[in-house]
Design brief:
It is a single chain. The chain has 308 residues and is an alpha+beta fold. It has three domains: 85 residues, Immunoglobulin-like (Sandwich), CATH 2.60.40.10; 93 residues, Alpha Horseshoe (Serine Threonine Protein Phosphatase 5, Tetratricopeptide repeat); 93 residues, Tetratricopeptide repeat domain (Serine Threonine Protein Phosphatase 5, Tetratricopeptide repeat). The chain contains twelve helices and seven strands. The strands form two sheets. It has a four-stranded antiparallel β-sheet with strand order 3-2-5-6, with no helix packed on it. Strand 2 and strand 3 form a beta hairpin. Helix 2 runs antiparallel to helix 3, helix 10 runs antiparallel to helix 11 and helix 11 crosses helix 12. The protein starts with a helix and ends in a 5-residue tail after the last helix.
């Protein structure tokens, strides 16, 4: 019984498969001609692919040198047709195949040449910079915003958008766009530094300090922003915070002796006079004669001369 049942199932599957395949077979026929929309000349070797709705195996033909094609033995019913040729935009259409079908005359349109995104991005950036220099900031910004919308991977262009808002003193919008870049590239020191500058310009020293503290000091190329941040902390009476920042950047930039001067000022605020005097002595002995901080450093050192 088991062997007989299996044989019956096999025969049933074969019958069903044959029936499904036979559904696309019939006596209907259809033909057509394809030409180039621009030149009106026949387009040879166009793949004409037809698939009956509900089935998975298509019927294919190619146009001859005259752009003509023909299909025979089709079943009546709903069919989906595709017309494919490299260098042309594909065409698709749905047809109801009957016993008698009119010829399909079709024009194919040449595909637009592929555009290199980098070329478009560079051209757009160039135009935006020119507009920005000409004082047409909203127009410049619009070009870049359109490029970002078209090419999301070019998110770094948000830095340019931020710069346009910075020029308008709209720091909230500038920060909004810079945060997009920093969130995607948290290791980019330049982008983080600019974000910290924007917070500083807005007057949000606390957020600026948070950004600076997240930066890998070994990757910093210019300590100016960190020195300015430390000066802000000194003026606000946050001496320990300033000292910590200045110690970090002095390790990275030991030849920038003015860091010693500002650290000495921070030590004075923290009432650590011995440390302040030591930094001032190092600074005075190594600073260039025209160093801006030198006169004040000598004055402070004179005031601390009795400190031991």
């Amino acid at each position: 019984m088991t062997r007989a049942r299996n044989a019956a199932l096999i025969l049933l599957c074969v019958f069903l498969a044959a029936s499904a395949s036979a559904q696309s077979k019939g006596n209907a026929r259809i033909n057509g001609k394809i030409v180039d929309q621009e030149t009106k000349k026949p387009v040879p070797a166009v793949v004409v692919r037809a698939l009956k709705v509900g089935e998975s195996t298509p019927v294919e033909q190619k146009t001859n040198d005259k752009g003509e094609w023909r299909m025979e033995g089709l079943a009546t019913g709903s069919w989906n047709f595709e017309f494919l040729k490299e260098g042309f935009d594909p065409q698709r259409m749905s047809l109801e195949i009957t016993g008698r079908n009119p010829a399909i005359d079709m024009e194919l349109t040449k595909a637009a040449p592929a555009v290199d995104p980098n070329v478009e991005l560079q051209d757009g950036m160039k135009k935006a910079v020119e507009l920005q220099k000409a004082g047409k900031v909203p127009e410049a910004r619009k070009i870049i915003e359109d490029l970002i919308a078209k090419y999301p991977p070019a998110y770094r262009l948000n830095a340019f958008v931020a710069s346009t808002y910075e020029g308008e003193k709209n720091f909230d919008k500038a920060i909004e766009h810079m945060k997009i870049v920093v969130e995607k590239e948290p290791a980019d020191i330049d982008m983080k530094t600019y974000l910290a500058e924007l917070y500083t310009m807005k007057g949000d020293k606390a957020e600026a300090q948070k950004v600076l503290e997240s930066i890998d000091m070994t990757q910093v190329k210019d300590p100016t922003l960190f020195i300015n941040s430390a000066i802000t902390s000194i003026n606000a009476g946050r001496a320990d915070e300033a000292i910590a920042t200045l110690e970090k950047i002095y390790k990275q930039f030991p030849s920038q002796t003015n860091i010693l001067y500002y650290r000495a000022r921070a030590y004075i605020v923290a009432k650590k006079m011995v440390e302040a005097k030591a930094d001032l002595e190092k600074f005075v002995s190594s600073a260039a004669p025209d160093a801006r901080e030198l006169p004040d450093a000598k004055k402070l050192l004179e005031q601390l001369k009795d400190v031991k």
